[in-house]
Amino acid sequence: xxxxxxxxxxxxxxxxxxxxxxxxxxxxxxxxxxxxxxxxxxxxxxxxxxxxxxxxxxxxxxxxxxxxxxxxxxxxxxxxxxxxxxxxxxxxxxxxxxxxxxxxxxxxxxxxxxxxxxxxxxxxxxxxxxxxxxxxxxxxxxxxxxxxxxxxxxxxxxxxxxxxxxxxxxxxxxxxxxxxxxxxxxxxxxxxxxxxxxxxxxxxxxxxxxxxxxxxxxxxxxxxxxxxxxxxxxxxxxxxxxxxxxxxxxxxxxxxxxxxxxxxxxxxxxxxxxxxxxxxxxxxxxxxxxxxxxxxxxxxxxxxxx
Length: 306
Description:
Layout: E1 4-6, H1 8-12, H2 17-27, E2 34-42, E3 45-54, E4 58-66, E5 78-85, E6 92-97, H3 98-117, E7 124-128, H4 132-144, E8 149-153, H5 157-166, E9 170-172, H6 176-182, E10 185-188, E11 207-210, H7 223-228, E12 230-233, H8 236-239, H9 244-251, E13 260-262, E14 281-284, H10 289-304
């Protein structure tokens, strides 16, 4: 067996957002993943390893080093790779660039939800945040809604301007409330620990996509958002007790576990779906090593077909 080494640049040019969402949906028809995370620390530096095994698909171990002081050296703070192993015999099949897998996994995760939950006639898309993930979201949502107009809001206007300059059909918003009220889809990828998205701003028929919060002390949306929306997640196991976006309102009685309508393992049953044009749908993107595995397998398949 040939060991494939797939760089960001080489892998990037082979991939397609819509095709990826098809692979993610197919991956959730397989048995539930066995997932394990581990962390090592040295002062401010971290080694993170996420492993996932899906019977019938394979095994992935995604490892990353996080060295915050690298910015002073002119180096990326996060580096790593994904080792992809055969499900049949455990042989190492590929080593794939960490940033390639993370980019396509993160935005692809949200895009699959939008395919199922957002109104098909959505034409105004708001991106909250202007970092690396926001750029990926503009690419991904643009593939699903090629005629849509995009607006970006960021705490620092210069960041929003930089994103808008990179893509056509993007304007900068100064008033977040007004931008939210005008959007059909709101996708948020910030590092905030305090909610910036208010439930009183939401409009009937909107789809809300929350990406940024990944720790118990982080939230992007307030309690009223959670009360007003029908809530969906990529995986109950990796979101409900681990991310403040859901953990806080569950603990405080704002919502109940039964208010989580579905996760991706409910796709086959049809429960992961919008049921009316007027309802507000909300998706919490939690990531997870199983999605890294599905994305890595998709990347390897595209690589082998090139």
